Amino acid sequence: PNGREVNLAAVEELLLRVGRIVGKERTYLGSFPSEVRPEMVSEEAIALIKRLAGNRNITVGAQSGSERILRAMHRGHTVGDVYRACEIILRHGLVPNVDVIFGLPGETAEDRRQTIRLIEDLTSKGARVRTHAFIPLAGTPLATAPPGEIDEETDRLLGTLARLGQQHGARRSRSSRAHHSSQG
């Protein structure tokens, strides 16, 4: 009713009706952009998805491992919410795909270290990460900000995780790749 609370009864009804329409007991829930807000993940919500949806993974919109960045972006969740959401998802036998953005406006080396720590912690528990370099979008408060970069050290870590099947998505920005390829 207020756009800030999950109506699990409506989600259940949606999944049941779609299942009847397509003739499947369990229907895949979600497509891009299908991430959930970390603070909205609950035992009840994930149990419902596990029971009625065909999903094997749930995408969690963490965006950063830095409390400072999350507050500056008015995300409405904390790093603790991200950990809690992933723990619930894992407990139900699903895989959390955690969306992370590097190069957010105002991001410092310390913010990036905190995000890397989040990634390392969550992947060690069974989560996967989907990484992105910040891209300003028209019509948003950050529309005039410059595109973000993924530094070489972070790129190496993401490459290692990708080889282990724990990371997918963008790694280095186009300008970084162009600079790198022109250097060697």
Report on this structure:
With 184 residues, the protein is an alpha/beta fold. It is built from 7 helices and 4 strands. It has helices at 8-22, 43-52, 67-72, 79-91, 109-125, 152-163, 174-183, and strands at 57-63, 95-102, 128-133, 167-169. It has a 4-stranded parallel sheet with strand order 1-2-3-4. Helix 1 (8-22) packs parallel to helix 2 (43-52). The longest helix is centred in the middle third of the chain and has 17 residues, at 109-125. It is globular, with a radius of gyration of 18 Å. The N and C termini lie far apart (56 Å). The model is unreliable at 174-184 (pLDDT under 50).
Brief overview, please?
The chain is built from seven helices and four strands. It has helices at 8-22, 43-52, 67-72, 79-91, 109-125, 152-163, 174-183; strands at residues 57-63, 95-102, 128-133, 167-169. Mean pLDDT is 86; it is low at 174-184.
Features:
disordered C terminus; 184 residues; 45% helix; alpha/beta; single chain; 4-stranded parallel sheet
Report the β-strand fraction as a percent range. Answer: 5-15%
What distance lies between the first and last C-alpha atoms, to the nearest angstrom?
56 Å
DSSP E strands, number = 4
Order of helices and strands: HHEHHEHEHEH
Instruction: Tell the overall outline.
Output: globular
Largest sheet: 4 strands, parallel
Rg value: 18 Å
Helicity range: 40-55%
Average per-residue pLDDT, rounded, comes to 86
Placed side by side, the strands forming the largest sheet appear as: 1-2-3-4
Structural class: alpha/beta
